[in-house]
Specification:
With 176 residues, this protein is mainly α. It is built from six helices and no strands.
Length: 176
C-alpha cells in the first residue's frame, strides 16, 4: 500500500481528500494567481538577498562538517550575520554610485523585507506546486485512487480486528 502511494506520488492525506474539478479551481487557481502576481516582488527579494545567501552557504562549506547538523545550522546563522551586512553594504554602495544616496537608502530599506517575503514565497510556491500536482493526480487517476482507498479501508479493518483480538487475549489472560 505504501509503495503504491509512493509510486503514484501522493500522500496519505491527499488520498483521504475528495477533490473535484470545482474544488481544484476554487483552491488551486486563486492560489496560483496570487503566486503569479507576487512573483515580481519575490524575484526582487531573491535577487537582492542572493549574495547574502551565497556567503552563508560558503561559510557552511568552509567551516562546517556536513554530518553535524548543529554546526551546519550555527554556521549558516553566522554566515548570514556576516553575509547580510556585507552584501547590503556592497549593493548599497553600487546603487549609491549609480543613483545617489537617497536612492541607496531607499533601496537598502527594502532589502530585509523583500528577503523575508521571498523566503516565504518559496515555501508557498512549494506548497502550491504540491497542491496542484496532487490535484491533477486526484482528477486524472480516479480508478487507481478508488482502488487505493479500498485497500486502505481493508488494511484498517484488518488492523482493527487484530487489535481487538489482541486486547481480548490480554483481557482474558487476567493478572498473574
Amino acid at each position: 500500500y505504501r509503495r503504491l502511494l509512493e509510486r503514484v506520488g501522493i500522500s496519505e492525506s491527499t488520498l483521504a481528500r475528495s477533490l473535484s474539478p470545482a474544488a481544484l479551481r476554487e483552491e488551486g487557481l486563486p492560489r496560483t494567481a496570487g503566486m503569479i502576481l507576487a512573483l515580481p516582488l519575490a524575484f526582487y527579494g531573491l535577487v537582492n538577498n542572493l549574495l547574502a545567501a551565497r556567503i552563508a552557504a560558503l561559510s557552511v562549506r568552509l567551516f562546517a562538517r556536513k554530518e553535524d547538523n548543529t554546526t551546519v545550522a550555527l554556521q549558516r546563522v553566522l554566515g548570514g550575520l556576516v553575509g547580510l551586512p556585507v552584501s547590503y553594504a556592497l549593493q548599497g554602495a553600487a546603487v549609491q554610485h549609480v543613483a545617489g544616496w537617497p536612492a541607496a537608502l531607499g533601496y537598502l530599506a527594502t532589502c530585509p523585507a523583500s528577503g523575508l517575503f521571498a523566503w516565504g514565497y518559496l515555501g508557498r510556491l512549494a506548497r502550491t506546486r504540491v497542491t496542484l500536482e496532487e490535484g491533477a493526480i486526484l482528477l486524472t487517476h480516479r480508478r487507481l485512487l478508488g482502488n487505493l482507498r479500498r485497500r486502505r479501508s481493508a488494511l484498517r479493518r484488518a488492523l482493527d480486528a487484530a487489535r481487538a483480538r489482541t486486547l481480548q487475549k490480554i483481557d482474558g489472560a487476567g493478572p498473574d
